[in-house]
Please model this.
Amino acid sequence: MNLAIRDIRYHLGRFILTSIGLGLLLGVVMSMGGIYRGLFADALTILTITKADIWVVQQNTNGPFAENSRIPEDIKYRIKAVPGVAEASPLSFQTIQIDRMDKPLRFFLIGYDLNGFGGPPVILAGRNIRQKHYEMVVAKGMNMAIGEKIRLGLHDYTVVGITSKVVSSSGDPAAFVTLADAQDIQFKKDNDAIRNDRERIGANLSSIQALSPSQAEFLQQNIARITESTHTVNTVVARLAPDANLQEVQERISRWNHFRPISVEEQTRILTKGMIEKARMQLGLFRIILLVISAVIISLIIYTSTLDKIKVIATLKLIGSQNRVIVAMILQQSLLMGILAYGIGYVLILLTYEKFPRRIVLEPFDLQMLFVIVVAICVISSFVGIRKALKVEPAEALGG
Amino acid sequence: MDKSMYAIEVEKLTKIYGKGETAVTAIADATFQVKPGELVAILGPSGSGKTTLLTAIGLINEPTHGKVVIDGAVVADEGWTPGFDLKRMRREKLGFIFQAHNLIPFLSAIENVMVALEINHLSRSEAKSRAVELLTSLNLAHRLNNFPSALSGGEAQRVAIARALANKPKVILADEPTAALDTENGKNVMALLKKLAVENHSAILVVTHDHRMVEGFDRIFQVSDGRITGES
Ligand SMILES: Nc1ncnc2c1ncn2[C@@H]1O[C@H](COP(=O)(O)OP(=O)(O)OP(=O)(O)O)[C@@H](O)[C@H]1O
Ligand SMILES: [Mg+2]
Model:
């Protein structure tokens, strides 16, 4: 006969309520782990979907995610020409926040070359971008419908396709447009600004005595073309040929002096160690605190439930029960409660994790570790109760 | 002395609670023997040391001095016999019945009896059939699955008796088993104990302060101020 189960069955309501409470707590611990993993997954999403071997960015920067990086678009031709490079493609990134239906809509706009790579990883609905201009593919997290239009910069953009849950390293959903559109949105000035700039350049040039009016006119047009040029990107990504040597390619690009070729490993390190380290530690610490709280609560519950059973334990000793019968009763109850609470927490997180605003990644390894920890906590916590129980004298059964 | 001659032998049993100024001698120099099948009553006023005597024989209260022999085994001689498995002796040879029935609240009537059998290494099915048999013989066949809280005082006390008898103990120790019952039920319980003494050939020691309850007992010890002052 299993005394632990008999006792639980007799006090079923209390047992279940306690387990639910503990389950909620463990659910929070699980979600902490999930958020922690989610931070990693989010931070690395764009790195992962781009499938590039090298990220070429502005010299002396940790771009394009951790720091700003601006390089000329046409560097892609030089990179393509480096021996060992199979493909190179420019990318532009910018965070945009607009008002949509009276709510701020924040997203990460990725401009990519239709003939290159770095575009939407999959198309879940609709189609990919086909026109050179004013079409947009959005991530699922944007909650936009196909056909919907939003105004970015000087133009309206139409959603033509939906891609998977692509997010920026800070968790904002991503949207894709052509590189030219992205450059327009980022750099193109409106007509007033252009007119102002041209007039300022003209005024500056006409104050140079050495220039004839026609020379000044010629210079002004050329300078305007340069300042109005939008052919800047944040990074050029490159994929290597199968037999290429990463280091050799990196060295070659470094020798040009103006660019930094970052390998995927380095970029991963920049993103995880630098950008999300604090958040990661915060979550880790919080998780430990919650686990300690769970341990204290389990100990208290087991201890009080042992106190409730002093008379029962004394009676069992009186009729000659072996200590293991009593130890097993306490230990099994503790474990059953812990396992039930774990199950409740697990179901809870499974039902809700997709509804969290940021990504929750439930790693089987994390969940298994937590299970082991919960079991260990239950065993250790029940020691307090067991110690108390073993000290009970059989004579205590006699008192009314 | 023939080992099986006595179920209980007590020699100069003394129990002193506490030390120095506050020491209380609850039982002093008690010496007697009880044969298997004998039904013995211990009568005496409150505080005279009846419970102390019973619990010392029941191996849950260490005697300060003197000797206790149960079924031929010396369990205490100036304190517990070192290394003696008291628990095993309790579950195999002793049965306890107390004023408060001491049933385990989360076990049904039948489970309360079964638990005593299972800790004594009976299989579940053996334990179950023996428990049913016992409870049926105590007129509790219709209460097998009730929890103690749903039993009347008399019913609960009979379940406790069934549990005490479960392992066919050599010695049954009862401390005021009828105190919580009305006269009618009290008499029934006493009659039952008498019947068991004869049938199971157990030595039964019953503490009571109710004179009306002791008719038909083989011997009656009078206790006052920690001493056995008379036997009739
Ligand atoms: N654990 C203890 N510590 C100290 N003194 C005790 C203890 N138990 C009993 N005594 C004392 O020993 C004496 C005998 O007590 P005991 O319980 O054996 O009496 P009793 O005859 O069973 O009385 P009652 O009829 O009231 O149950 C009493 O004076 C009591 O106060
Ligand atoms: Mg008493």
